[in-house]
Amino acid sequence: MPPKFGAKKPEAAKPAAAKPEAAKPDPAAAEKLKGKKIIFIVGGPGCGKGTQCDKIVAKYGYTHLSTGDLLRDEVKSGSARGKKLTEIMEQGKLVPMETVLALLKDAMIARADKSNGFLIDGYPREVKQGTAFESTIRECDKVLYFECAAKTMTERLLGRAKTSGRADDNEATIKKRLDTFYSETEPVVKFYEDKKKLKRINAERSVDAIFADVVSSLGAPPVSAATALKGKKIIFVVGGPGCGKGTQCDRIVEKYGYTHLSTGDLLRDEVKSGSARGKKLTEIMEQGKLVPMETVLELLKDAMVARAGKSNGFLIDGYPREVKQGTTFESTIRECDIVLYFECAAKTMTERLLGRAKTSGRADDNEATIKKRLDTFYTATEPLVKYYEDKKKLNRINAERAIDAIFQDVVKALGPAPPAAGQDKLQGKRVIFVVGGPGCGKGTQCDKIVAKYGYTHLSTGDLLRDEVKSGSARGKKLTEIMEQGKLVPMETVLALLKDAMIARADKSKGFLIDGYPREIRQGTEFESNIRPCDIVLYFECSAQTMTERLLGRAKTSGRADDNEATIKKRLDTFYSVTEPLVAHYEKQGKLRRINAQREVTAIFADVVGAITAMEAAPARAPGAWMHEGLPDLGNGAGPQIRVPRPSPAEPTASTFVINVLKDLATRTVASQHWSKTRASTLEEIDVETYRSKRRWRSLLTSQRQEQVDEPLYQKIDVNSLLAECQPDAETQDCFIKLVPRMIAFLESSLPFDVTKVVVGGSYGYDTLVKSRNDVDLFVFSKELPKAGHVMWMPSVMKAVEALIRDCNKGQIPECTDFTTSKFSVGFTCQGIEFTVFLTHDWESERAGGYTRLYDESMRQRNSENRRMYSWAAARRQRQFILDQEEDVRDVIKVVKHWRNGVDWADKSRRPSSYLRSHTHVLP
């Protein structure tokens, strides 16, 4: 019969010979178990507490400790303590309470890092044991007492006896055990009931009913760090003092919704709080000691868990400073996703810090102290940088440039911003950008739109002023920026707009965005981060009219900037900034010009017409600029369309664009041998032969027209054609979100080291056109075979295809329609055609040899290199388009649309896909 650990010894029994020392408090144990729930479990044999403990462990992540199990395990271990326990039991003595306590404490400390708390089962059995536990280890949080009648427990134990084979499952023994339990337990129950810690649970019901009371008593399960931080980005931010990482962190917070945590700020806040931990920190600092790493980690973990529900991720600034801190963070909390290292020369950081010293008043902003700080930083950081670079997590950011240029690289490293909480509320809401100079009357028109359509009018100026007045952390930051005379970062304005739109989405049909965008980049950032606009209302008004209105307002407004000189400057700024913006949205077919020189009612009638048309037709109808009933561009080989001749009132293409169109069309005809000699002008082309080729009918007029007697270029309204070729907003949005995910997937999943990924195709050089949307992804790696080993490539490509087919990891949507060649894998993902090309990274091995390599890869028919995409080819292709004027870059969108299937064999290459860099900027 097994010994009854902890049972009362008959009076004849003698205590163990050696009397152990009295239990003493253990500060280390108390610190280790801080924040962990400790629950005593009390209940007689057969009450069902074992079943309930299993359910508590599963739901709450607590650790179930039974003193009986701990004693048996220690005996089995053969340790010195285990041998001592065996000796005591063989002598029929009671195991000393101090030994049981030591076993409990050791077990709890060993499991503390991976447990939310502890269920102590079978202890205490008397008041003295409970008080000894609480004075030695820590006070318990709660006592769960599973109450059950002796009759019920007896029946359960007898029922168990039929299958258990246990010798003590007989009625006489059960009675003795229950008598002992009741006599011992009553004082313990009363003791903890008096301390308001006891919870009586009726254990005579079903398992689920009992557990419902347990949950009611314990409350909601604690959230572990791993659970709370699941799906949250963790980014370590590394950089020397004065590198500008604080500024970049502010921008990241605004754009990505991440939380910026500085270990220095956390320590200072904890000290100010006056908490027990804060007092301990004060004591450590006053003694000039270093704060233990464990304490810093605990502060970080607590802060991250507390903010996890409202944050997309965390920027950990100032930690780690050495490799050990990083590995401890990742083993205790979670691995980081990425490390941003803001590289800056010591000279630059010194100059910045000395410049700051003129206004900061900080004692450590002097040259000698700065040098020491930088020396310390470089010494500590070099191993850290190497460690994370080896793990492929480090992103070096050149922090010696302008703030915007630095942030562009940060965005490339981090990828697209996650949607904000509640951003789905903006689905189906109309967004109208309102553009117009000062004094154009757009404010009056916005009021009328709000009254008629129920839209919300948002002015960026008002939002900024309201945020400052609110006294929020962001408001204080804005005040600081404005007082320094700096521009408010675009990311902050976007964040304010997004927050305001989400907050008002439930009660609004749509939004009038007034005063934003003021430049193209602001518009594209808004549309990629929030949602595409539907239309742009441009209230056109002459400078003279706006000046007169503003001067008239000056008589009553008292505004200092309503004077003629200031008005002229404001108007000059408006026109210089707005013209590119207007042209951008006009090309997209979204701009609605409103003549704002008339009286208010007449202006509003045009506004109503524009909004009514927008609401009636969510997307611009294809072929709107063509004759009714004729097919649209891009619906197969040779669509039959008739391009209208522009009327004198309509805008016409510049002479330069016309000449380019003529040249492109002429060279196309010549390259296809559609005429024996190269024609110098379109007039010299055999138009009837040219027109008879099915693929090129779209360049001319409809077959219904009997005679073509005018040059081709006179029949093309290039501006309308360009606008019509633009893809819809949904397509662009899909590209913006999907392409970075695809690149990240390739970089992280391919079975070799990727040097860089360059994006080409329609998406690669912003040459998307309707029905011609594709992406080429050029993957460069030194591990891929060179030209002499091209026989390896087919097997490599098959492996890559298999990897992309297996989309179960959820990193990318499902891919279909695979076509694999020796050097590429083609597939479709969410309606977008992707082609992945793999090539050896020639750049690093043949620096300076781009032209020669280009000749090898593109012109020499017998060269193996010719069949492989090279970095030189990418560079040459990209440079071709960059060398052209803006008008030509626009025309290429049209040419790509027309050129499907054309082969310019044996001609100087004019590629149909122009590459641009994604992860690295090409020289």
UniProtKB/TrEMBL annotation:
Pfam families hit by this protein: ADK
NCBIfam families tied to this protein: aden_kin_iso1
Catalytically driven reaction(s): dCDP + GTP = dCTP + GDP; CDP + GTP = CTP + GDP; a ribonucleoside 5'-diphosphate + ATP = a ribonucleoside 5'-triphosphate + ADP; GTP + UDP = UTP + GDP
PROSITE patterns: 25A_SYNTH_3 (PS50152), ADENYLATE_KINASE (PS00113)
PANTHER family noted in UniProt: NUCLEOTIDE KINASE
Organism: Branchiostoma floridae
GO biological process, one term: ATP metabolic process
Annotated HAMAP family: Adenylate_kinase_Adk
Keywords: ATP-binding, Cytoplasm, Kinase, Nucleotide-binding, Transferase
GO molecular function: AMP kinase activity; ATP binding; nucleoside diphosphate kinase activity
Protein name per the record: Uncharacterized protein LOC118415962 isoform X3
Entries under Gene3D superfamilies matching the protein: 2'-5'-oligoadenylate synthetase 1, domain 2, Beta Polymerase, domain 2, P-loop containing nucleotide triphosphate hydrolases
Ranges where the record places region Disordered: 1-28
Subcellular location: Cytoplasm
GO cellular component: cytoplasm
